[in-house]
Automatic annotation (TrEMBL):
Enzyme category, top tier: hydrolase
Keyword Hydrolase: yes
InterPro entries, per database record: 6-hairpin_glycosidase_sf (IPR008928), 6hp_glycosidase-like_sf (IPR012341), Alpha_rhamnosid (IPR016007), Bac_rhamnosid6H (IPR035396), Bac_rhamnosid_C (IPR035398), Bac_rhamnosid_N (IPR013737), Ig-like_fold (IPR013783), Rhamnosid_concanavalin (IPR008902)
Designated name of the protein: alpha-L-rhamnosidase
Organism: Parapedobacter defluvii
Residues in Alpha-L-rhamnosidase six-hairpin glycosidase domain copies: 467-810
Lineage: Bacteria, Pseudomonadati, Bacteroidota, Sphingobacteriia, Sphingobacteriales
Residue ranges annotated for the Bacterial alpha-L-rhamnosidase N-terminal domain, each copy included: 174-352
């Protein structure tokens, strides 16, 4: 997917009897947002979704019209682009090819679709707006407060800095036609116009390395401004711009990492006002603005929390006429080093609210709030008190006992919010420049007992769409899925963070190598990960080296193979799941540069063995506080892990080159891959015992999965994996590098039953063990209930491995056809494990909704399937003859929309087009 701009236009095309198909535009989104006014791509990609009540609906042609006004487009005057009728089934990522687009330009468009049923329909009219396409379009200056005040501690280890409040009044003398605000407030900002907040985002903008890239957001503020006096107010928070820790150039003594800071917060703001007479005026940040740091937000820090003193509030500071004579003139600030860009990925929003499960008094006179769910966000309070009463909220994921929070795993993070009451009746408050990972909150300073109605948990994460759902007859599987859902969204912050609670919260490349793939079945993470690939690109050194953490808020640069391989593996996920052909093309030069750098710098005898982390976090002995095992029988040679991943990246690079017609590059990567494969087998394979390395499951699984094992040895190598699985009581026993392939590896080689056993275990180590010990999210450690607090997050996605992929592709049977992308073709070949009675899953692909709901009814399988228009599916039905199969009560051979493809003594393969199908298969021999 080309992620600078994507417009999704939903078309409902249906037929009923002799009536023409109905058409309805449900939503228009730009990078997931309707009518997004910040498009930088000069050839934006347009996509639309077709819905039809007719089976086997395929688009046969389209026509796109784009105009400079809605009125012109209503008359079919396409002064910007008329594609003409294009005979193709392409309905996603259609590139605009019209008149060159300019800054701020509004583009109105619609599309006509023809289908194979002989019908055609027009969509409704929608629009997008271009961003500022040239640096000279910016008329604003960076402003802020380039100093600190009493109470601030900018140079202590635990830094502390009050929020900055900035304001400007402007008089508008003409009638307003439209107005757009472009804002970059670093680290975080909230903008208000005439007393109302602009947008409903929180913790904006999303994170990046400000020395390389500086995001700005665009908002339509036509309804916020008015003729006459106007006031613009902005609050600047610290975010990750002003450092949360200052070790004065030394490593963090607990983690060993170095941390970065960029300076004091600063603002760049430009409002473009278009008047009805055709003229344009700008309101922008410059030296005429006023600023103070003496407002109610006395400190804000993502690790430590927010301190708010309501007695210092200044009423109506963001409205015209406010007396700001005591405020200072702003300082003109240096621009950040990074390049300004219109943020393409979703901002963070309040996505859900929770009522506490319980509120009770402790034996210390405090009150404990139990949300019933480990969550990320903050607590909104609704309390009464006296002026000057200080309410302190301390957040934690766990309890030591009923009256005591467990905070040791937070490390240096204080995770505490403070609110000083003004004493004016019921006061409502929540922080705006911090967030917490928590289930429990201890509340200090209350003069009267609270109730659950006095608190609200506000869940915040990137405004990505939930596109997948999964339930089954096994409650352990269902709760694991729920825990995974909460964990994934807990760690979407514009970057995929590792954890949301302790003094870390950074994006480790290795954590997401395969997790991103599983996540993509639940959330539309396409823009998030494409943006993160851009972050990785600018973090690359000139020589091609890549860091382990991006953005580099922690400076960790070990030059190992596995973690930076995310830069190659994740674009393949985006290509496969979302038909994103742009990301791997855009980053191909950087990928190639890294591959060559690692080879030139570290290869020995045709192998790149550079490794630091190995098979990270193999489960230690149950009941210990050890973070990872030191058992040599479970510890895989890091060189083997590195060499196998390097080989896998070579195979991906060969394919990326081939897709771009780069035959010479493809041959180059292929030749190198064959050399690596030969050297790998020579070094690591034991031909006498038929295993790799020291015979750990990961040592055998990686070469088996990556296609490095000679054909005659594959069964024997897989048997070594089975032996190890049995040795560990049919529990998962790999670290994260092995877990990324383990569930699929068992299933692909004929043991899906064993994979099901592993997935549903409730004893240590297992995902079910976490649940049995009270987990509502996924732990960082298999022994998270006993592990050492130095590295023991209770909200960490890395141990999921390939479990969610296995849920969808193997249990539900929803898999993108490897010969196509983006689920244009679907492969539906589920497993039916003994003991699992039904699965009900859905996935909203870029073509529309896919559903798979199968249920065992004694010796009969009932399987209900939905495929979206403009897509097809190959379906495997567990029968040895088509005569055992009916669809909608009709024998299979009599259903015209179903085509028989193949059959053997176990399965019948058919091809279906779009629509709803209800298959019944008789006399199924389960388990064969």
């Amino acid at each position: 997917m080309r992620l600078q701009f994507i417009v999704i236009l939903f078309l409902f095309v249906g037929s009923c009897g002799l009536k023409q198909p109905s058409l309805e535009v449900v939503s228009l989104t730009v990078e997931g947002r309707e009518n997004f006014p910040g498009i930088e791509e000069k050839q934006p990609l347009l996509s639309w979704e077709i819905r039809s009540s007719s089976r086997a609906t395929e688009q046969t042609a389209y026509q796109v019209l784009v105009s400079s006004s809605g009125e012109k487009l209503a008359d079919n005057q396409a002064d910007l682009w008329d594609s003409g009728k294009i005979n193709t089934d392409s309905s996603i990522h259609v590139a605009y090819k019209g008149v060159a687009l300019e800054s701020y330009q509004r583009c109105y468009w619609k599309v006509r679709v023809w289908t194979n049923h002989g019908d055609s329909v027009w969509s409704a009219v929608h629009h997008w707006q271009m961003a500022m396409l040239h640096p000279e379009d910016w008329k604003a200056q960076w402003i802020g407060l380039d100093t600190f005040s009493a109470g601030d501690r900018p140079y202590d280890q635990d830094t502390r800095l009050a929020a900055r409040y900035l304001r400007k009044e402007a008089t508008i003398e003409k009638e307003i036609q439209a107005a757009t605000a472009y804002i970059s407030g670093l680290g975080l900002y909230e903008c208000y116009i005439n007393g109302e907040k602009v947008g409903n985002d929180v913790l904006t903008p999303t994170l990046t390395d400000y020395d390389k890239r500086v995001p700005y957001n665009a908002y339509d503020v036509t309804d916020r401004l008015k003729k006459g006096a106007n006031a613009i107010g902005v609050i600047l928070g610290n975010g990750r711009f002003f450092g949360m820790r200052d070790f004065h150039g030394n490593p963090n003594p607990m983690t060993g990492s170095r941390q970065v800071t960029y300076g004091f917060p600063r603002l760049l703001l430009q409002i473009r006002v278009e008047y009805r007479d055709g003229s344009v005026e700008y309101i922008h940040s410059d030296g005429s603005w006023k600023v103070t740091d003496q407002g109610p937000i006395r400190a804000n820090n993502e690790y430590d929390g927010e301190e708010y003193d309501a007695t210092l509030e200044f009423a109506e500071w963001d409205t015209p006429g406010f007396d700001d004579r005591t405020w200072k003139a702003v300082d003109l600030m240096d621009a950040p080093k990074g390049v300004l860009y219109s943020q393409p990925n979703e901002n963070i929003k309040i996505k859900e609210t929770l009522v506490p499960k319980e509120v009770y008094a402790t034996n210390r006179g405090t009150y404990m709030v139990d949300m019933g769910q480990n969550m990320v966000g903050w607590l909104k309070i609704n309390l009464k008190g006296n002026a000057g009463d200080t309410i302190k909220l301390v957040f934690a994921e766990r309890m030591k006992n009923r009256d005591t929070l467990y905070t040791e795993n937070l490390r240096y993070a204080r995770a505490t919010d403070t609110y000083v009451m003004k004493g004016e009746g019921t006061e409502q408050w929540h922080p705006i420049f911090t967030y917490h990972g928590f289930r429990y909150v201890e509340v200090f300073g209350l003069s009267t007992p609270p109730t659950v109605a006095d608190f609200e948990g506000q869940v915040v994460y990137d405004d990505v769409q939930t596109i997948g759902d999964f339930t089954s007859s096994n409650e352990t599987l269902n709760q694991i899925f729920k825990n995974a859902y909460w964990t994934i969204r807990s760690n979407y912050r514009g970057i995929p963070t590792d954890c949301p609670q302790r003094d870390e919260r950074v994006a480790w490349l290795g954590d997401r190598i395969m997790s991103s793939y599983g996540e993509s079945f639940i959330f539309d993470n396409s823009r998030l990960y494409a943006k993160w690939m851009d972050d990785i690109q600018v973090a690359q050194n000139e020589n091609g080296s890549l860091p382990d953490v991006v953005p580099a808020y922690w400076i960790v640069h070990n030059d190992n193979v596995t973690y930076p391989s995310a830069y190659i593996i994740i674009p393949e996920m985006l290509r496969k799941q979302f038909a994103d052909e742009a990301t791997y093309r855009k980053h191909y030069p950087g990928m190639k540069k890294w591959m060559n750098y690692m080879w030139d710098t570290y290869s020995t005898d045709d192998l790149v063995l550079k490794d630091v982390y190995g098979d990270w976090c193999v489960a230690p002995e149950e009941g210990t506080d050890v973070i990872w095992t030191n058992d040599p029988k479970r510890t895989t040679d890091g060189g083997l892990v590195a060499a196998s991943y390097y080989y896998y990246c070579l195979t991906l690079m060969k394919n990326f080159a081939s897709l771009q017609g780069m035959d010479e590059d493809a041959a180059y990567f292929d030749t190198r891959a064959q050399r690596v494969r030969s050297a790998f087998n020579k070094r690591f394979f034991h031909s006498d015992s038929l295993y790799y390395g020291n015979n750990t499951t990961t040592a055998n699984l990686l070469p088996l999965t990556f296609g490095m094992v000679e054909a005659e040895n594959r069964d024997a190598v897989f048997n070594r994996i089975l032996e190890k699985t049995a040795e560990y009581g049919n529990h998962i026993h790999t670290g994260i590098m092995g877990a990324m392939w383990y569930m699929r590896g068992l299933s692909d080689h004929g043991r899906p039953d064993l994979a099901y056993t592993v997935a549903t275990q409730k004893t240590y180590p297992s995902w079910g063990y976490m649940i049995e010990n009270g987990a509502t999210t996924i732990w960082e450690l298999w022994n998270g209930n006993t592990g050492h607090p130095l590295m023991n997050s209770w909200n960490h996605q890395m141990l999921l491995g390939d479990l969610l992929i296995w849920y969808y592709e193997y249990l539900a049977g929803i898999k993108s056809d490897p010969g196509q992308t983006g689920f244009k073709g679907v492969v539906m070949h589920p497993i039916f494990p003994e003991g699992l009675e039904y699965v009900n899953a859905s996935y909203r692909s870029i073509y529309g909704m896919i559903k798979s709901h199968w249920r065992k009814e004694n010796q009969t399988l009932r399987w209900q399937i939905t495929i979206p228009p403009n897509a097809t599916a190959r379906v495997s039905l567990p029968a040895n003859t088509e005569k055992a199969i009916k669809e909608g009560g009709v024998p299979l051979g009599e259903v015209p929309e179903i085509r028989l493809l193949d059959k053997d003594d176990r399965q019948v393969w058919v091809e279906i087009g779009s629509g709803d199908y209800d298959f019944v298969v008789a006399d199924v021999k389960w388990g064969e």
